[in-house]
Design goal:
The protein is built from two helices and no strands. By secondary structure, the chain is an all-alpha fold.
Length: 85
């Protein structure tokens, strides 16, 4: 087998592993988010400013995860272009 083809298979395998791990991590994070939201909803003593900060933190975390995933997608596409040519 050609070295280029073998490396392409390795990159494809790595990409599948990454996507499976990222999906599992996202699922785990959503479970933790549900638990945390339930606890926060029951905590009447938390001020509104703190709730807004928590919401902002959650939105920024989700945006960062999305940016990370899109950067990884772009990186895999660049690697595939390199090995396809």
């Amino acid at each position: 087998m050609d070295q280029k083809q073998m490396f392409k298979h390795m990159v494809d395998f790595n990409q599948v592993v990454f996507y499976n791990f990222f999906q599992a991590l996202t699922l785990f994070q959503s479970q933790i988010e549900r638990i945390a939201n339930s606890a926060i909803d029951q905590a009447d003593w938390i001020p509104d400013e703190s709730l807004k900060a928590i919401e902002l933190w959650d939105k920024s975390f989700k945006a960062a995860c999305g940016h990370f995933r899109s950067n990884v997608d772009q990186s895999y596409e660049q690697i595939k272009k390199y090995f396809s040519g």
